[in-house]
Amino acid sequence: MPFHVEGLVAIVVFYLAILAVGIWAAWKTKNTGSEGDRSEAIIVGGRDIGLLVGGFTMTATWVGGGYINGTAEAVYVPGYGLAWAQAPIGYSLSLVLGGLFFAKPMRSKGYVTMLDPFQQIYGKRMGGLLFIPALMGEMFWAAAIFSALGATISVIIDININISVIVSALIATMYTLVGGLYSVAYTDVVQLFCIFLGLWISVPFAMSHPAVTDIGFTAVHQVHQAPWLGSINSLDIYTWLDNFLLLTLGGIPWQAYFQRVLSSSSATYAQVLSFLAAFGCLVMALPAVLIGAIGASTAWNQTEYGVPDPMTKKEADMILPIVLQYLCPVYISFFGLGAVSAAVMSSADSSILSASSMFARNIYQLSFRQNASDREIVWVMRITVFLFGASATAMALLASSVYGLWYLSSDLVYIIIFPQLLCVLFIKGTNTYGAIAGYLFGLVLRITGGEPYLYLQPLIYYPGCYPDENNIYIQRFPFKTLAMLTSFFTNIIVSYIAKYLFESGTLPPKLDFLDAVVARYSREHMDKATLVKSDNIVLNELAPVNPRHSLTLSSTFTNKEAFNYVDSSPELSNTEDN
């Protein structure tokens, strides 16, 4: 394939435009807020992100290269089809559930990162443990979308895949490094517009190509391959449900999502942003679904692509750029390439910023350097933005499937962080002992279930498992959801057992080595004033750090404060302390 100078020029112009917007947003950040809260302005944008920009940036966080390329791939692959393209519905429902139940309590309590409530209730060491799966999730996510970009550019303009990934990563990292959330948010507006326009312009041209059969007919009839609507076999129903729950519930506890929630100007705005983004995710998935359907309806031997087809060549994960390249005019394919590049950077910058925000605040500042200056925290964030961006770039070429790496990135978040988030926000009285036990049980059950993408054989063979072509056993049983539920209930049970043993005197106070039950004022737990510095946040809205001695079963197991987003009354606080 010849080298396309026009395509390279189009990409360079697009990247320069994005970089210019990012630098402008960084300049705007410097004129926002006081000198004392520069780090918080970088992380949560001064908490003044409005509905328009907030809606765009939250949508663009999910609508990335993995989302666009992965959805098209799932629709195209014979035997799977639209029935298995779960991401659009799954992540949209995730945003709806996040808006209904999680956005308001997190924003109203004035946290800065997703890990703040964990460190407040469970202590800094537990916060450090939860940082590990959160970081891995962000890195897998960023690697998946960089991989999608490399595949797209290498197909359309025939440039080395390593160069395309590295240059794209440098651009995203550069404006994230200098501008933080403001740069990410404002570039997201431009990028989302490019995605929408670029893909929708490409669809009519691809659909009208002579080699493409009517997609309405191929949806239910086998022509070049199985119908692209797809089907779910009875044996695969539990696998489908397991993956769907992973996307829906596992899509909530991400720093990239809560960063937008916590940057909104009010708790109500945080909810509205979630609902707007849910609608945006569905709308942005439509062109990707159509492109996947077009790929499944094409006689590839009648195109310049030739034979065999992309599935036989094991290029199904590149079906979107292949459709743009071989079924659209040259100038249209270059415009579509800009759209996919935008999709990649709109999610990559979010993941990189999320990982660096959690490290700088929850690991470096709150765990090791509580007296660190704001300038020091800003520099730590800049260094980690560069390091995490480089790490995600290095992993970008290791995935055999964009969709597979996408699922993998949500596994640890779904199994470990989601049940912990439920407990810390809605279950009253859980403590560090329960959190550690739940963490370990969930992790062990997930690892022993195996992972075909890492060629990891399972140690526990659940009912219905079978070997694939590489003799790696695939689980049909919903073991990921089982691991999540086990982690959730283990946290509750162990927490209340530990609480009973210490409060009843069965175990002496000196054995409470984590200071999770007996100690009323533990150095291990974060002080309210340490977590929240903004003047507009009322400190007594924060969940109490001290353990409570509940009198009734219902009050023991239900954190009513999570459902009542108002200041706690002094009378209630006095009753609980007594």
TrEMBL record:
Q: Which residues cross the membrane?
A: 6-27, 48-68, 80-103, 129-157, 163-182, 189-207, 237-257, 269-298, 318-344, 377-399, 405-427, 439-462, 482-502
**What does the entry give for GO biological process?**
acetylcholine biosynthetic process; neuromuscular synaptic transmission; synaptic transmission, cholinergic
Recorded hits in Pfam families, A to Z, give: SSF
Q: Name one GO cellular component term.
A: dendrite
Membrane topology value: Multi-pass membrane protein
Q: Does the keyword Transport apply?
A: yes
Q: Give the GO molecular function terms.
A: choline:sodium symporter activity
The UniProt entry, under PANTHER family, shows: HIGH AFFINITY CHOLINE TRANSPORTER 1, HIGH-AFFINITY CHOLINE TRANSPORTER 1
| Description of how the protein assembles with itself and partners | Homooligomerizes at cell surface. Interacts with SEC14L1; may regulate SLC5A7.
Q: Which family does it belong to?
A: Belongs to the sodium:solute symporter (SSF) (TC 2.A.21) family.
**Protein task:** High-affinity Na(+)-coupled choline transmembrane symporter. Functions as an electrogenic, voltage-dependent transporter with variable charge/choline stoichiometry. Choline uptake and choline-induced current is also Cl(-)-dependent where Cl(-) is likely a regulatory ion rather than cotransported ion. Plays a critical role in acetylcholine (ACh) synthesis by taking up the substrate choline from the synaptic cleft into the presynaptic nerve terminals after neurotransmitter release.
Name this polypeptide is given: High affinity choline transporter 1
